[in-house]
Design goal:
Blueprint (H helix, E strand, L loop, with lengths): L28 H9 L3 E4 L2 E7 L6 E6 L6 H18 L7 E7 L7 H22 L36
Parallel strand pairs: 3-4
Antiparallel strand pairs: 1-2, 2-4
Helix pairs in contact: 2-3
């Protein structure tokens, strides 16, 4: 018989779009290096927010919280609140950026404060990208992408007959 407290661990299907899936995270070292190399950043409170347009069509988040910020408990609390701020403000953030948030030492704030700082920083970064590099600013993903065309001599493509060459 399941324990009553186990019900809290299960999430109904309606909350699945509110998760923070792997596709929205910066994971690899090269992804962080690319964002830092762009050298486009903004200060927002104790946060230093870097951004770089991506080709994914969705914004992705990476966090950098050094030991100078405090104990592991403090660092993890700040990271949880930043992830929650990003997750709940995705609809309000400009789409199509890889975002790296570097945290400077401070006392942990409420999630709403991190959300306000993140929104402010990303609006300023988006404005900066659109002004300086209009061709590099992110574009939203296409709503109905066409399937990529196959090679011209693909025997499996529709309209080709087996055993016939294109010029015969």
């Amino acid at each position: 018989m399941p324990h009553p407290d186990d019900q809290h661990d299960r999430q109904p299907d309606s909350n699945r779009d509110e998760r923070f899936p792997r596709r929205l995270r910066l994971i690899h070292r090269l992804q962080y290096q690319a964002v830092h190399a762009a050298k486009v950043r903004v200060n927002a409170g104790p946060l230093l927010v870097y951004a770089l347009p991506n080709d994914v069509g969705e914004s992705r988040l990476g966090l950098s919280v050094s030991r100078r910020v405090g104990t592991a408990v403090r660092r993890n609390a700040i990271k949880r609140r930043l992830r929650e701020a990003f997750r709940t403000s995705r609809a309000d953030l400009p789409a199509g950026y890889d975002i790296v948030v570097s945290v400077r030492p401070h006392d942990p704030e409420k999630t709403q404060q991190y959300r306000a700082w993140l929104l402010d920083a990303m609006k300023r970064l988006d404005k900066r990208y659109r002004k300086r590099w209009p061709n590099r600013a992110p574009t939203p993903p296409p709503t109905d992408p066409a399937p990529p065309p196959g090679p011209p001599n693909d025997p499996n493509s529709p309209g080709s007959e087996p055993g016939r060459s294109p010029g015969a």
